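Here is one such protein, fold included:

. . .
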Amino acid sequence: MNKILIGAHTSAAGGAHMALYQGKEIGATTIQLFTSNQKQWAGRTITSEEIVLWEKALSETGITDVMSHDSYLINLGAPDLEILAKSRKAFQGEIERCHALKIPYLNFHPGAYTTSSLEQCLETIVQSLLEVEELVQEGKTKLLLETTAGQGTSVGHKFEHLGFIIERVKGKIPIGVCIDTCHIFVAGYDIRTEQGWRTTLKEFDEKIGLNYLMAFHVNDSAKDFASRVDRHADIGQGKIGLESFRFLMQNTDVPKYLETPNGPPIWKNEIATLRKYAEEKN
């Protein structure tokens, strides 16, 4: 049986390697983490000592397919030139830290158009990504666009937004998509049932291509279908429901990362439940 890649966004307090150990404690086979403070523009540099600790922790935990999540401040589609320059510099730092730790995936929110237009924002995101073409080729990290809830002026809540970006950078940037289950649900993709999932994945394939689907953020939703309000809930405790996650575990085999709100004790139970769903199929 293939390894079931399921984990959570664990804490890097005390060093990135600590996120791996927390993952091991909750029964995770993969994790997501921040490689720097997600609420500060100034990113940190990974030291050689940290790399040694990281590689030791990887070996001791057996955790693979790690994903980094970029800073919440970054907006690669910003119309404000100062914010855009800061975002592009910070994004480059995210890639450099992923390369230093040999992290396979960097998840990022596409951006928000604020005072411009959706079309301008998408074009700016494309240009932002093309600017890191040389840098990203220096390592093996894949850049994963995250589906969004559609709050405010954020882009990425429709599959065609991500399809537009990917079509223009593919072949130059190692690009893919991370579907956030809460986000797509509140954005208007009804994944509560098997048929709903099949319809959603069919549309994803048509607008983007299933070969670009590389990860999931696994979250229930505290808010209603198509509300476009991003509030995560524990698995089975929100508006999506357990059957959706059973289908997800039994019909997709890409890495999955919990971002549910109540932390390690709940994650341990959720990972056990999700693993059980996957094993039921085998």
Observations:
- The two ends are 8 Å apart (CA to CA).
- The chain has one domain: 6-281.
- The chain has ten helices and twelve strands.
- The chain has a mean pLDDT of 97.
